Amino acid sequence: MDKYAMISFIPSIAVIGALFVIVAVGIKMLRKFIAEDAATAARKDS
What we know:
It is a single chain. By secondary structure, the protein is mostly helical. It is 93% helix and 0% strand.
């Protein structure tokens, strides 16, 4: 791969990698929020 192809290829791969990281963090946070809501609902039902 020549230098000019790398100039557009590397930022594209960086953006895709960042999106995967954001999705992974979002899923982890969503699971945490769901667990907190379930615990709150369980306490209110008792």
